[in-house]
TrEMBL record:
Substrate binds at A11, F12, R13, S14, A15, W16, W45, L46, E47, V48, E67. One of its GO terms (biological process) is phospholipid biosynthetic process. The chain crosses the membrane at residues 31-48, 54-73, 94-114. It is a multi-pass membrane protein. It comes from Cohnella phaseoli. The active site is at E67. GO terms for molecular function: ATP binding; kinase activity; metal ion binding. Its cofactor is Mg(2+). This is Undecaprenol kinase/diacylglycerol kinase (ATP). Gene3D superfamilies: 1.10.287.3610. Mn(2+), Zn(2+), Cd(2+) and Co(2+) support activity to lesser extents. Belongs to the bacterial diacylglycerol kinase family.
Amino acid sequence: MSGWRSREARAFRSAWAGLIGALRDERHMRFHAVAATVVILLGLWLEVSRTDWLWLLLAIAGVWSAELFNTAIERTVDRISTETHSLARAAKDSAAGAVLVMAIFALAVGLIVLGPPMWRMIVHA
Ligand SMILES: Nc1ncnc2c1ncn2[C@@H]1O[C@H](COP(=O)(O)OP(=O)(O)OP(=O)(O)O)[C@@H](O)[C@H]1O
């Protein structure tokens, strides 16, 4: 394999290891994985439009990315020091805030995209 290709393969393996490691070690990440699976199954069942799939996938990717950044920040702060410090608290709280923003966005997307067809299913059942 050429130098460029092996560097790219290594970078991809590291990124994949980061994702799998977060799923293994982070409870919140596993919750997001379950939520994403439920949303995808609902999307398939309700046969949502292509545009609605884009919104759902954007919401899922956004929450996963925010959670991975949050994990990276938590670990970096802990690597520097596990001592209680107001800046450590502020850094971790900001990172958690970013996840909260994305989670609220994802909830809104889920309600807007999946709410009406689910409601129709319930009413016509
Ligand atoms: N070194 C610290 N100094 C001050 N406050 C901290 C420190 N570490 C954590 N905290 C506070 O505790 C909260 C939780 O931090 P923690 O690192 O336990 O993350 P967590 O949300 O429990 O994530 P996880 O369950 O994935 O480990 C932070 O948001 C912050 O308010």
